[in-house]
Amino acid sequence: MNVKSVEKKGNQATIVVEIDRELMESGAQKAYLKARKNILVPGFRKGKAPRKMIETMYGKHVFYEDGLEEIFPQVYEAAVAGQEWKAVGRPTVTDIQISEEDLVTVVMTTELYPEVTLGQYKGLEVPKTEPTVTDAQVQAELDRMAVNVASTETVERPAEMGDTVTIDFLGTENGVPFEGGEGHDHELKLGSGSFVPGFEEQVVGMSAGEEKDIDITFPQDYHADLAGKTVQFHVKVQKVTVENIPEQDDEFAKDVSEFDTLEELKSDIRTKALEQAQKQSDSAFDQACVEKAAENATVEMPKALIESELDNQMERFAYQLQMNGYTVEQYAKMMGGDISTLRGAFRPVAEKQAKVNVVLAEIAKAEGVTVTEEEKQAEYESLAKQYELTPERVKEMVPDSEITASLETRKVIRLIADSAVPTAPEAPKPEENEAEEE
Q1: CATH superfamily, domain at 262-423
Q2: Is the pLDDT of residue 437 over 50?
Q3: Mean pLDDT score, 79-93
Q4: Strands (DSSP E) found in 198-354
């Protein structure tokens, strides 16, 4: 194989390659073997026609295009080997020429890993919020703990706001049931706002065993199938229950914790909340430092790296949705769009993160950041403990290069953040009164 020319322009390279007959023939033969089972030639059983016969009928280069796909990874790898630049993403074939001597010349373009001009990344001045925990936050946690240990009691009276009702319901539009409008033994806390507006208010006053028709008009911003439509729900209340929330005193503290008094419990809640707030503050500061270092750098980002980061973010989001029983397609539809719309929403974040990744890698190179075998082994052991696996099993699942890159990135983030100077956040600007005084 002969690389005839390489032209680099910005973040793209154009490569002209001449493929020798032997390599091209191997690709064409593979393409023929894959395709012949679907080719019918008069005088032969389907899939049994000789290659020469097919080429006589359709042209001697009939298998060259598919044959090029068979050998292209090999061709591309050889074409970019030894170059000073690093190719990223998938190459594009822009032209194919076949000579009378059956030599194939391919013109391909590929995006390149970008050149980075670093700006300031040490000694950055970055705002940092000092963590605080308010009395209201402590009280909110106490309330949550009290609700968690609350007991329920079935009552024989009409339902009130704050009660939980167990209901059967069937929604119809002009007498015809609609999708998602039916439920049985559904527990609904009145006042929670979990049903369409107006529904819960009309259940108030119903008792166990009572049935009722409820008229509802869906909001205009509801999902497209029902937006603005008037429907009717037939509702039957099975039972009404109330929560008996314990009083928050010393006995309560003993029941829900290892502490003897409510004040000790409050102190513990405050301490843990402050620790968590400090972690969040530190993490936000680290991220702000990294983003500022990226903003100070000059780099022309190739589309391939942005699309790769976008794919990663979509994959992580899809996994989170899956944990909650949804697919990306379902979520996109609920939001009134499709996968393309969702990717568009994620794109600005992906663009920013892709640049951050490139800048961090360049800083690692500039600072000579390295990772030792001991550090990698410690990381494998940490992951093994986290996921309850053996280090050997983790090594099988996570490539060495991925562990190395992750550790390098963390070291660079620490280098940037540890040298940064925390500053007080700007005070929020008072809202301007735009109304003119008469």
Answers
A1: Trigger factor, C-terminal domain (1.10.3120.10)
A2: no
A3: 90
A4: 211-217, 230-244, 298-299
Helix, strand, coil percentages, rounded to 5, for the chain: 45, 20, 30
CA gap 133, 135 in Å, rounded: 7
CATH 3.90.70.10 fits 2-113, yes or no: no
CB-based burial of residue 171 (10 Å sphere; 0-12 exposed, 13-18 middle, 19+ buried)? buried
Note the maximum CA span of the chain.
98
Tell me how far apart the alpha carbons of residues 195 and 286 are, in angstroms, rounded to a whole number: 41
- Exposure class string for 301-339: b at 16+ Cβ within 10 A, else e: bbebbbbbbbeebbeeebeebeeeeeebeebbeeeeeee
**For residue 349, pLDDT beyond 80:** yes
- Collapse the DSSP code of 281 into the 3-class scheme (helix H, G, I; strand E, B; otherwise coil) and give the result: helix
The full length of the chain comes to 438
Distance CA 383, CA 374 (A): 14
